[in-house]
């Protein structure tokens, strides 16, 4: 019995797959929570959110965008031809978010422990995705 395997170059390397899987799942969870349970998700982070239709609409729309980006990053972990694009989406998204948190920290003050940790995680995931974009040696 023979098993059909793809050439090594066509497979996504395990470290790359791990980074894209973790990065994608985090975005999917955040996006999904923002889309499906926006009030609960914000309150978990100490953000009191009035249940007005306009604010809920904006929060859900941003959640849907994050969910779509997360699915894109996650697909790159399993579809080799999408891996580079997925790493770029992860790098740009996470690094932009980390930069925005830094700007907010300077302009607005500390948001509290949970969101500071989120910023560090976003920076780490962004740098990991960026690392995947470097040319092979």
Automatic annotation (TrEMBL):
Say yes or no: keyword Aminoacyl-tRNA synthetase present.
Answer: no
Q: Which InterPro entries match?
A: DUF4345 (IPR025597)
Q: Where are the transmembrane segments?
A: 20-41, 61-79, 86-107, 113-133
Q: Which UniProt keywords apply?
A: Membrane, Transmembrane, Transmembrane helix
Keyword Cell inner membrane applies: no
| Top-level taxon | Bacteria
Q: What is this protein called?
A: DUF4345 domain-containing protein
Supply the source organism for this entry.
Answer: Actinoplanes subglobosus
